[in-house]
Write a structure and sequence with these properties.
Helix content: 25-40%
Shape: globular
Largest sheet: 4 strands, mixed
Number of helices: 3
Structural class: alpha+beta
Distance between the termini: 38 Å
Strand order of the largest sheet: 1-4-3-2
Order of helices and strands: EHEEEHH
Radius of gyration: 14 Å
């Protein structure tokens, strides 16, 4: 079995976040998803867990950042070309994301 990483992210709206990641090409795993969380696969070994903020809070005693005004992590995805990077950036902004730089 390959090693797998699950990146857990707090989100305000699980269905909206799921739609955003789906627009980027992630695939939802319904076996690991419910009203509180969506398991989104990028590859066989890379997954993003989109957790409702209240559910996320059950895993930590720390304050949850406001990602609109604070930075908590920088996550990067690799692509084969600059055109592929531009394509996913366009998908992200079309799906409601914002380019910061």
């Amino acid at each position: 079995m390959p090693r797998t990483i699950f990146i857990n992210l707090p989100v305000a709206d699980v269905p909206k976040a799921t739609a955003f990641y789906t627009a980027l090409g992630f695939t939802m795993n319904p076996d690991l998803s419910n009203e509180q969380a969506s398991a989104m696969a990028w590859s066989e070994s890379i997954h993003v867990m989109l957790l409702d903020r209240a559910f996320y809070a059950t895993f930590t005693d720390k304050q949850i950042i406001d990602a609109k005004t604070q930075s908590g992590a920088l996550l990067c995805l690799s692509f084969d070309s600059k055109d592929a990077v531009n394509t996913i950036q366009n998908c992200a902004t079309t799906a409601g994301g914002r380019a910061t730089r």
